[in-house]
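User: I'm curious whether this sequence folds into something compact or stays loose and floppy. Could you predict its structure so I can see for myself?
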Amino acid sequence: MGNELDAYPADGEGPVREIVLSPFSISSTAVTNAEFEAFVTATNYVTTAEQSEDSEPPWSFVFAGLLPDDFPSTRGVLGAEWWRQVEGADWLHPEGPGSELKPGCSRWNHPVVHISWFDAKAFADWTGCRLPTEAEWEFAARGDLNQKRFPWGNESRPDGDFMCNIFTGSFPDNNNAEDGWIGTCPVDAFYANNFGLYNCSGNVWEWCNDWFSARHESDSPIRDPKGPSMGLDRIVKGGSYLCHDSYCNRYRVGARMGLLPDSSLGHQGFRIAR
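Assistant: Here's the prediction. I'll summarize afterward.
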């Protein structure tokens, strides 16, 4: 587990360490809009992005490149101005008002997004499952290819083929969709890895159960690690459709980030385990 090549030191990708895991199951795809809609229908669940705070209308972050050219000006993120604060953006309205998903639409089999860690955990609990640990997620994503950069090997584009959904072109202003997609793609697009998992690189970041820390246990091998007992951020893995080698190559299997568990963005999803 872990990585020491092309790594971001502050992310705590290394050191490479030996992990022993008990048997587990993990979903072959990220949870879809259709699956999340079934959960909401059954439970009347309200996601973090749909909840008002301090009398402000609900909102979530949307990538500016997915908004219409005439979309009203909104606040951005300092240093990452391609993220726009959009009122009314949530899992059912991925780009805000006017972008409502309908059952059976072309994005019904895309991963659900604008999902906080709390939302992902609530869905997992409803199914009788849980969120995977980071170790479980990384083991499954590697597909038995020990210490390879991606679920399919070391080359990002073997034989020139696109193997995942990332940002192609010049980030952040020009996505030429050379890989076939702008924004999310179906959860079973591209090739599965050797364990039958799809889209462990790119498409959407996926929540893990662990708290984030850049430091790791030192004894090796480590059995069934579950991360720190407390923290501020939760782990996300896998990168997203916004990954681009010019600024963020975190779609590598060993890459990781920490996000506040109530974070909500248009490239956050999850898969479940048990």
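Summary: The mean pLDDT is 95. The chain has one domain: 1-274.
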